[in-house]
Amino acid sequence: MGEKREIIGGEYDLDAKWDASLDLTVRRFVYSSFAGAFGGLLLFRSPQTRWASIAFGAGVGIGSAYTECSRLFDGSPPKGSEAPTQILTQDSE
Fold it and tell me: Is Mitochondrion included in the keywords of this UniProt record (predicted)?
């Protein structure tokens, strides 16, 4: 009946951060691996180079997910949300 629940701010909710991080990592790994496989099928004949393109795609996905997750845990704002800088203008008479 009278239970008290604490409301935790978004910047301190580690469970939500880990969930978002895991989801982002898996999605980027899978999508970039598929892109590498598709590119390997189109561009290369040798099985070794096809596997190398899949590995390269997976590495790109893991790297981009790592970068985004480190921003998420450090609390820095995302890329596109930087505050605009003030531009000084001169009034002409």
Answer: yes
